[in-house]
C-alpha cells in the first residue's frame, strides 16, 4: 500500500540494464522489510537466484552469522579470511547455476563484520546485485556504507505513508471505510508508519474505542496503549540519562514548549542531546522557538509511564515557569490552567473559568468541560454553572446540563445573569431534550425583564427557536426587533441576524442572506467569547444558501476552513457533523457517490447521540444511497431520519422530504415519488420557501415531469406546469442556478435535445456533473427515438460525464433505458472491446450468423451505427446483472 514507486525502483534496480542495487533506509515499522520481500518475491525464479538474509542482534556476534541462511553449514578449514570470502562467493555462483544472483539483506546494519564484507564483495561481482534495508539512527558497518559511497548501489529513504495511503491502509486493515476525522487522527498519531498504525488500530479496536457505526469505522480518540505498542515505542526511545529523560518528560506534558522556557528548567546540553537523538524537534512559531516531541506516540508512552507524583510535580513546575515569565500569548492562560488543574494546584476559579471560555471558543469540548467543572467546584458560582451547562449541551449531555443549571437556580444574583441562565436553560431544553414548550416558558419569564440588553438576549433566542419550529413570521419580527435595539449585545444582535439570514436563504433571497452572514462573520471577535456556539447558526445559514445556490466551490471552502478543523479536533460534533452533511451534498451533485456515502455515514456516526442534525444526516445518507441505486439502504436511512429527527428542527423539513422523494423513486415507486414531490412543492410555495421550491421542482424535471401541472388553479382555470413555475421562480430566486434549472425544464418540456445538451454543458461548467449527465441522458433518449445521427456524439458526451462519476443509478439516467438480454449484453460487451465476430462466436459457443444477428439487434436498441459508438452507448445503461460497463 502506497509503495508502488519504491517497488518499481527496487525491481528496476535488479532487472534494469545497469543492474545497480538499492538500499532503503527508514524508521522501524515504516515498511522496509515488507517492501524487500515483495520485490524479491516478484522476481522470476528461472532468471534470478535470490537469497534473503535477515540480520539480527542474535547473529551479529557470530562470524558469518548474518549469512547462516545462505552458506553451507560446513566451511573449509585452513583458509585465510580473504580465502573464505572467495569461497563464499564461489558457493553462491555454483548455487545460482548461471542465473543472476540477487542478495537481499534485511536490517543490514546488524550484519557481523565478515558478513558485511561478503555482501560488499558480492556487489562487486559481475552478474550479481545487492538490495537491502537499514534502520535510521543505527551504526552502519563500513563495508555496507561503502556500497553507495563507492557507487555500487543507490541509497534511498523510505518516507512515511502519505495521508491518502494511510486511509487506504486503514480501510484494508478494518475491511471497511473509516470516517475522515478518525483516519486523519490515526494517521497523524502513527506519523504514516504502517506498523504503528496497525498497533494503534488493534489497540483501539480491542478496547472498543474503534467501532463500526452505520458501516463506517469511527474512533473516539481515546487511546489505549497495548503492551506490544508500548514495547515498540520504548525500543525507539531507547535508554535515557536522567537529564534527557527530564527534557522528554517536560516536553511530553507541555508541548509545544518554548525553547527558552525549557532551558530554564533543564540543562541546555540535555536538550541538544534529545534533539540529536531524534526524540524532540525544535521549530519556529512566529518569533518563538517551540519544542515538540519528534513523534506523537512518544508523549503517550512517557505520560503513561511517568509516576503520578512526578507527573503532578512536572505540571506544577511548567505552570510556575510560564507564570514567572508572564502569560503573553493567547493560549498561555489555557496552558497554565490545564497544568494547574492536572497538578492539583488550581485554586483560582476566575482563571479556570477564563480558560474554560477560551477552550470552548476553540471548540475543544473535552478540555472546556474539565476546566468549567473545576471552576464550578472551586466556587465559580452561577457563571461557571452557565458555562458548564452550555458545554455539556454540546457534548450531547443535556440532562446533566439541566441538572447543573437547576442546582444554581436559587443563587441568581441579578437580571443580567437571569437572562443568560434563562437562554442557556432554554437552549438545553429545546435542542437538547426536544421540549418545544420551552419557547413560551422562556418568553414568559424573560418578558418580565426591564433592561433592554437583557430582553434583547431573550428575544434573539426566541427568534431562532421559532424559526426552527417554522413560526417564521414571529421569528422575523423578533429578530428584526433585536437588530433595531441599540442596547443589544453583539452576540444577541448577530444571533438575530443569523435567523434573518437563514430565512432569507430559504425564501430565495440569496444575495441578502450572503450579506447578512458576512456581517455576522465580521463581528466574530465581539461575539465569539460570549457565544461561540453562534458559529453553528452562521454555518447553517451559510450552508443553506450555498446548497440552494448550487455553489459547490463555496461548500468546499466552508468544509475546509478553520472552523471545520477546530470542530474535528475538539470533538465539537454538531459542527463537524453538519459540515459532513454539506460535504456529502457537494459530492452527490458531482456524481461522486462513494465520497457522498462516506461523508454521509461519517455525519451519521458523529451525530448518533445528538438529535439536532441527526435526521438531516440520515436524510443525506438516503440521498447518497439512492444515487447508487441502493433502495434498501435508502429506505433504512429514511426510517432512521424519521426516528431521529427532532420536532424542534422542523425548519429542515425540505431536505428530509426531498430525500423521501428520492427514496420512493429508487425503490421503483416513481408515481409515488412524483406525487410526494408535487405535494412538497405546494407546501414550500405556501410557506414562501422559494429557494427550496426551486430544487424540488427540478427533482420533478429529473423524473421527466417538466410538463406536469403543479400549484393552485390559476385565473384561466388551468395550472402552471413545472417548467412554467420554475421560469417564474427564476425571476424571484437569486443567483445563476434558478434560470439554468428553468432552461432545463423548458428544454425537457419542449423535447429539444439541442437545448438539453447546451444546458448540460452549462451545468457541467458549474461542477454539477450529475444533473449535467441527466440532462444529456434526456437528450440521448430524444435523439435515439428520432434515429438522429447526432445520437452517437451525444451518447459519447454522456459516457464522458458518467466516466467522471462513481456508480450512479438515478431514475433520470435509466428512464427508457434499452433492455438488453444477457446474451445481447455479452456479445455487445465483447464487440465493444474490439473482439471479432468469429472470436465472439468461439468464446460464447455460437454461430457467426447468430452473433451478427445479436449485434444488429443491439445496434437497433441502442440507436448506434456500429462498433465505434458501442462502448459509449453501453456506459449509459445498466447491464442485466446490475453492473455498469464503465
What's the helix and strand layout?
Elements: H1 4-15, E1 21-26, H2 32-41, E2 48-54, H3 81-96, E3 100-106, H4 113-124, E4 128-135, H5 142-149, E5 153-157, H6 163-174, H7 180-190, H8 194-206, E6 210-213, E7 216-219, H9 227-237, H10 242-254, E8 257-258, H11 259-265, H12 268-276, E9 280-285, E10 288-293, H13 296-305, H14 308-325, H15 332-343, H16 349-361, H17 365-377, H18 381-394, H19 398-407, H20 415-432, H21 438-446, H22 452-468, H23 472-483, H24 490-507, H25 510-522, H26 524-527, H27 534-549, H28 552-560, H29 562-569, H30 573-589, H31 593-606, H32 614-627, H33 631-644, H34 653-666, H35 670-687, H36 690-702, E11 709-713, E12 719-721, H37 722-730, H38 737-750, H39 753-765, H40 769-785, H41 791-803, H42 811-814, H43 822-832, H44 837-844, H45 848-862, H46 870-874
Parallel strand pairs: 1-4, 1-5, 2-3, 3-4
Antiparallel strand pairs: 6-7, 8-10, 9-10, 11-12
Helix pairs in contact: 1-2, 3-4, 4-5, 6-7, 6-8, 7-8, 10-12, 10-13, 10-14, 14-15, 15-16, 16-17, 16-18, 17-18, 18-19, 18-20, 19-20, 20-21, 20-22, 21-22, 22-23, 22-24, 23-24, 24-25, 24-27, 25-27, 27-28, 27-30, 28-30, 29-30, 30-31, 30-32, 31-32, 32-33, 32-34, 33-34, 34-35, 35-36, 36-37, 36-38, ...
Amino acid at each position: 500500500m502506497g509503495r508502488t514507486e519504491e517497488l518499481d525502483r527496487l525491481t528496476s534496480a535488479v532487472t534494469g540494464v545497469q543492474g545497480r542495487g538499492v538500499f532503503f533506509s527508514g524508521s522501524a515499522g515504516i515498511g522496509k522489510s515488507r517492501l524487500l520481500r515483495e520485490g524479491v518475491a516478484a522476481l522470476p525464479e528461472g532468471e534470478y537466484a535470490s537469497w534473503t538474509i535477515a540480520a539480527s542482534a542474535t547473529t551479529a556476534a557470530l562470524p558469518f552469522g548474518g549469512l547462516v541462511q545462505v552458506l553451507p553449514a560446513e566451511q573449509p578449514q585452513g583458509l585465510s579470511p580473504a580465502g573464505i570470502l572467495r569461497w563464499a562467493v564461489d558457493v553462491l555462483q555454483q548455487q545460482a547455476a548461471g542465473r543472476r544472483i540477487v542478495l537481499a539483506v534485511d536490517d543490514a546494519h546488524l550484519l557481523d563484520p565478515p558478513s558485511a564484507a561478503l555482501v560488499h564483495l558480492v556487489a562487486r561481482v559481475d552478474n550479481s546485485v545487492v538490495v537491502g534495508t537499514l534502520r535510521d539512527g543505527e551504526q552502519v558497518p563500513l563495508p555496507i556504507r561503502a556500497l553507495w559511497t563507492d557507487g555500487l548501489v543507490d541509497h534511498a529513504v523510505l518516507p512515511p505513508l502519505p495521508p491518502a495511503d494511510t486511509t487506504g491502509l486503514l480501510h484494508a486493515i478494518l475491511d471497511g471505510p473509516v470516517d475522515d476525522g478518525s483516519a486523519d487522527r490515526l494517521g497523524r498519531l502513527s506519523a504514516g508508519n504502517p506498523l504503528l498504525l496497525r498497533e494503534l488500530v488493534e489497540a483501539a479496536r480491542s478496547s472498543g474505542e474503534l467501532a463500526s457505526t452505520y458501516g463506517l469505522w469511527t474512533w473516539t480518540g481515546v487511546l489505549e496503549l497495548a503492551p506490544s505498542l508500548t514495547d515498540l515505542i520504548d525500543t525507539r526511545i531507547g535508554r535515557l540519562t536522567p537529564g534527557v529523560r527530564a527534557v522528554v518528560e517536560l516536553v511530553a506534558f507541555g508541548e509545544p514548549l518554548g525553547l527558552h522556557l525549557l532551558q530554564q528548567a533543564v540543562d541546555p546540553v540535555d536538550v541538544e542531546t534529545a534533539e540529536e537523538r531524534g526524540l524532540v524537534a525544535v521549530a519556529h512559531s512566529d518569533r518563538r522557538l517551540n519544542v515538540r516531541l519528534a513523534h506523537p506516540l512518544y508523549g503517550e508512552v512517557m505520560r503513561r509511564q511517568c509516576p503520578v507524583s512526578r507527573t503532578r510535580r512536572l505540571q506544577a513546575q511548567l505552570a510556575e515557569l510560564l507564570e514567572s515569565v508572564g502569560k503573553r500569548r493567547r493560549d498561555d492562560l489555557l496552558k497554565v490552567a490545564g497544568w494547574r488543574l492536572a497538578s492539583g494546584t488550581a485554586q483560582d476559579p476566575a482563571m479556570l473559568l477564563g480558560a474554560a471560555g477560551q477552550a470552548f471558543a476553540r471548540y475543544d469540548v473535552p478540555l472546556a468541560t474539565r476546566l468549567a467543572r473545576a471552576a464550578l467546584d472551586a466556587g465559580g458560582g452561577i457563571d461557571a454553572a452557565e458555562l458548564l451547562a452550555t458545554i455539556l449541551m454540546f457534548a450531547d449531555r443535556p440532562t446533566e446540563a439541566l441538572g447543573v443549571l437547576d442546582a444554581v437556580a436559587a443563587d441568581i444574583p441579578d437580571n443580567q445573569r437571569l437572562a443568560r441562565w434563562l437562554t442557556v436553560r432554554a437552549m438545553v431544553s429545546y435542542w437538547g431534550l426536544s421540549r418545544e414548550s420551552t419557547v413560551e416558558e422562556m418568553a414568559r419569564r424573560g418578558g418580565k425583564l426591564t433592561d433592554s440588553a437583557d430582553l434583547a438576549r431573550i428575544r434573539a433566542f426566541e427568534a431562532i427557536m421559532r424559526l426552527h419550529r417554522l413560526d417564521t413570521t414571529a421569528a422575523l419580527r423578533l429578530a428584526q426587533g433585536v437588530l433595531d435595539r441599540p442596547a443589544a449585545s453583539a452576540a444577541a444582535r448577530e444571533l438575530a441576524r443569523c435567523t434573518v439570514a437563514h430565512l432569507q436563504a430559504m425564501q430565495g433571497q440569496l444575495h441578502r442572506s450572503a450579506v447578512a452572514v458576512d456581517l455576522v462573520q465580521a463581528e466574530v471577535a465581539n461575539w465569539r467569547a460570549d457565544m461561540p456556539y453562534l458559529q453553528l447558526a452562521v454555518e447553517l445559514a451559510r450552508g443553506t444558501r450555498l446548497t440552494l445556490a448550487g455553489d459547490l466551490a463555496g461548500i468546499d471552502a466552508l468544509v475546509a476552513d478553520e472552523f471545520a478543523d477546530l470542530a474535528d479536533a475538539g470533538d465539537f460534533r454538531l459542527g463537524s457533523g453538519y459540515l459532513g452533511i454539506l460535504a456529502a451534498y457537494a459530492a452527490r451533485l458531482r456524481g461522486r457517490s462513494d465520497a457522498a456515502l462516506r461523508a454521509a455515514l461519517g455525519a451519521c456516526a458523529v451525530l448518533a447521540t445528538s438529535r439536532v442534525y441527526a435526521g438531516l444526516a440520515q436524510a443525506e445518507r438516503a440521498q447518497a444511497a439512492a444515487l447508487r441505486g441502493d433502495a434498501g439502504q435508502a429506505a433504512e436511512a429514511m426510517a432512521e431520519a424519521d426516528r431521529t429527527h427532532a420536532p424542534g428542527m422542523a425548519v429542515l423539513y425540505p431536505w428530509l422530504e426531498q430525500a423521501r422523494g428520492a427514496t420512493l423513486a429508487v425503490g421503483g415507486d416513481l408515481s409515488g415519488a412524483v406525487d410526494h414531490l408535487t405535494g412538497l412543492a405546494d407546501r414550500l410555495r405556501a410557506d414562501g420557501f422559494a429557494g427550496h421550491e426551486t430544487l424540488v421542482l427540478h427533482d420533478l424535471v429529473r423524473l421527466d415531469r417538466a410538463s406536469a401541472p403543479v400549484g393552485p388553479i390559476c385565473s384561466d382555470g388551468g395550472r402552471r406546469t413545472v417548467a412554467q413555475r420554475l421560469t417564474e421562480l427564476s425571476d424571484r430566486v437569486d443567483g445563476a442556478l434558478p434560470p439554468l434549472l428553468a432552461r432545463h425544464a423548458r428544454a425537457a418540456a419542449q423535447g429539444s435535445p439541442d437545448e438539453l445538451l447546451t444546458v448540460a454543458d452549462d451545468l457541467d461548467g458549474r461542477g454539477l456533473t450529475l444533473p449535467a449527465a441527466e440532462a444529456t441522458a434526456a437528450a440521448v433518449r430524444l435523439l435515439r427515438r428520432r434515429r438522429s445521427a447526432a445520437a452517437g456524439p451525444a451518447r459519447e458526451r454522456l459516457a464522458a460525464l458518467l466516466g467522471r462519476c462513481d456508480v450512479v443509478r438515478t431514475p433520470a439516467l435509466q428512464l427508457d433505458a434499452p433492455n438488453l438480454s444477457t446474451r445481447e449484453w455479452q456479445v455487445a460487451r465483447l464487440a465493444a472491446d474490439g473482439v471479432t465476430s468469429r472470436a465472439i462466436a468461439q468464446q460464447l459457443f455460437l454461430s457467426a450468423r447468430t452473433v451478427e444477428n445479436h449485434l444488429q439487434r443491439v445496434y437497433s436498441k441502442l440507436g448506434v451505427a456500429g462498433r465505434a459508438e458501442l462502448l459509449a452507448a453501453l456506459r449509459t445503461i445498466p447491464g442485466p446483472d446490475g453492473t455498469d460497463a464503465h
